[in-house]
Amino acid sequence: MAEGGSGRAGGETILAKLSELMFVEIIRRHLETLPDNSRGWLSGLRDPHVGEALRLIHARPREEWTLDRLAREVGLSRTAFAGRFTHYVEVSPMHYLARWRLQLAGRLLERPDVSIAQAGAEVGYESEAAFNRAFKKFVGVPPGTWRKGRSALLEAQRLPPIVVQ
Questions:
Q1: What is the pTM of this model?
Q2: DSSP letter at 160?
Q3: Which one, of 49, 76, 79, 54, lies nearest residue 65 by Cα?
Q4: pLDDT digit string (tens) for 44-95?
Q5: pLDDT tens-digit series, residues 87-128
Q6: Are 131 and 125 spatial neighbours (Cβ–Cβ below 8 Å)?
Q7: What is the C-alpha to C-alpha distance for residues 119 and 73, in angstroms, rounded to an integer?
Q8: CA 45 distance to own-chain centroid
């Protein structure tokens, strides 16, 4: 509280970092209170192997991940890794990877300076056609249609400029 009202140099930066630290601490405490039988992404973080796989997927989404490669990276057999990941996260590792990539691609598609092919390549799809198929499968519409609908929605939500007379 004192830092917020001090007006000292660097105060905004300190407050931003403190808020990040507080957020991490809240997540830590929440993880510690989850029951042993809980499921979901956060529960997966508690498991050392699944947590490492999630960190790899999030840090390097465009990498050519396979089930075998992820399993090797986290030190488990393919079968043990797939079962453990699915047990905690409630979807298969490859399904999770696809959803994560498409979430990232959706953010990229909100930018008018990024083409559909660029968005797909940025998140790990080798061809625009493969990206289009995956996007339509998970989202329900092709990326171009989604982008147009998203742009129209954002435009409708934009407030008109204030005119001072």
A1: 0.73
A2: P
A3: 54
A4: 778 899 999 999 999 999 999 999 999 999 999 999 999 999 999 999 999 9
A5: 999 999 999 999 999 999 999 999 989 999 999 999 999 999
A6: yes
A7: 26
A8: 14
